Amino acid sequence: MVDLRERLAYPLPIAVIGHLMGVPEDQRDDFRQLVDNVFDSTLTPEQAKANAARLFETTDQLIAAKRGDPGDDMTSLLIAARDEESDGTGFTDVELRDTMILMINAGYETTVNVIDQAVLAMLTSPDQLHLVRAGQATWEDVVEETLRAEPAIKYLPLRFAVTDIRLPDGQVIAAGDPILAAYGAANRHPDWHGPDADAFDVTRRVKDHLAFGYGVHFCLGAPLARLEVAEALRQLFERFPAMSLAAPADALRPVPTLISNGHQELPVRLRVVE
Ligand code: HEM
């Protein structure tokens, strides 16, 4: 029995984004703890503040190291872009650090939950897995349906209306009001996906969802995330065709956060036990 979240869902996205951003291997776990804490909405304000300070410090250290010894990675490219634009038209040191944190946060946490939720959906809906194995649906369909039915980011806080927004039912969100974007609710709205919106159905014709956000801030990493998860599922189910869940699905504990939509552990048996 293995915890698939610990053994696959975390290491894969962390290896990919760590490689892209040039995070040295021995620092990737430090970032993981810091990023996990960013998404943990049970921290006290003091703990969250201390975590943010540590995240700033660790990112600043990475920037300083890469500035002294650039590599073939995005951190070095961002630093070069920052340093070349000394006439004020480029971005500031704070923007450089914040961009780094955004990329690392986004790449670390979200994809983990999609792998977790997609594997769980396949192991708890053998009919859906059968459709993929029979060639009637693709792993890409599984990824999209997972993003729709179980979006990796369930709620996104810290949005504020910049103008008054009138909703179709006449309610007004006033300029300045805080908004909690509930992607999970939107993706399962019957007006959008019909009366069976709650059902996990890889053959669903309309697979649209808001899991990657909407508009100018639409997720930059969407193609990478889609590729990573589809490939992980393809390889995993090919290599371990008899894999099964090693705990009742309703006993899986959700991660302690309002934001992310995953489980603390995903125990599976990779092979049939004789
Ligand atoms: C399945 C995995 C992922 C999900 C569900 C996801 C979700 C999202 C969402 C909901 C937003 C919009 C936030 C907003 O409205 O402000 C966003 C933005 C963003 N994501 Fe992702 N993301 C994923 C993977 C990634 C990866 C792997 C990367 C990096 C390689 C990434 C980089 C970004 C960046 C840079 C933005 C900000 C774009 C902007 O503000 O213009 N994401 N993501």
Automatic annotation (TrEMBL):
Entry superkingdom: Bacteria
InterPro entries registered for this protein in UniProt: Cyt_P450 (IPR001128), Cyt_P450_B (IPR002397), Cyt_P450_CS (IPR017972), Cyt_P450_sf (IPR036396)
UniProt key word rRNA-binding: no
Statement: the UniProt record of this protein carries the keyword Iron: yes
Coiled-coil parts of chain: none
One Gene Ontology term of the molecular function aspect: heme binding
UniProt entry keywords in alphabetical sequence: Heme, Iron, Metal-binding, Monooxygenase, Oxidoreductase
Family: Belongs to the cytochrome P450 family.
UniProt-recorded name of the protein: Cytochrome P450
Organism: Streptosporangium carneum
